[in-house]
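Before the break, one more example. Copy the sequence into your notebook; we will annotate it together after we see the structure.
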Amino acid sequence: MKGIVLAGGYAKRLWPLTVDTPKPLLPIGDGFIIDYIVAKLRALDLEEIIISTNKRFEEKFVEWIKKRGYAEIRVIPEPSKSEEEKLGPIRALQLIIGESGPDDYFITAGDNLFSLDLRCMLDFYNQVSSAVIALYEVERKEDAKKYACVIVDDENLIRRFEEKPESPPCCLVSTGIYALPWRCISRIGEYLAGGNPPDPMGRFICWLSETEKVYGLRFSGYWYDIGSIESYRAAFETFKGVGYSSYR
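Here is what the structure looks like once it is written out:
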């Protein structure tokens, strides 16, 4: 299994912080956002971890990898240099699997900070032998409007997946953390050929859940989706004094 960190966006909602710095490389705790994400992924003993970014920020991540000395991490950039040119995460994944080859993939958004132990998610993935996404209960339905709402049955099988609903049916949302077997992720080409949108990633998961078994794994604790200055400040305060080297 290989890991992928989706870091291809330009994070305009966080300008000026992200004008010249990719969101995952914003400071937090004693490192950067991506340090904490990668610490979670490295606990899985993956074959390699791929940073999916763009040409504009490629060198920033290459420098970070060199500084950390991570031999098992590499960057695969998509060709865009601006928001208007970007491929979207689904096309970026198509590029990655075309280069990296057939395998199962553990994928997470590059702006996620979460309490979920990915080793527990991997155990569940191995039990069900199918796609698994991580789910979190937000406090209000108003908050759920910003995400993909998910309804699961008693066996945690996804029965409904709705991206940014006007009237959320629940407060359980997708967190941008996915474990996908090759038989699922290899269908990205089929998905795109059908004229489906390359962004957001939830569109592919919704499409996939209509023809494949996709499970949801709930977790509690905390989840920071860093999409605004306010959410970044909240995470920054929470992670003061937290070292990424011991973060699992």
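The longest helix spans residues 89-100. The chain is about 30% helix and 25% strand. Try to locate both features in your own notes.
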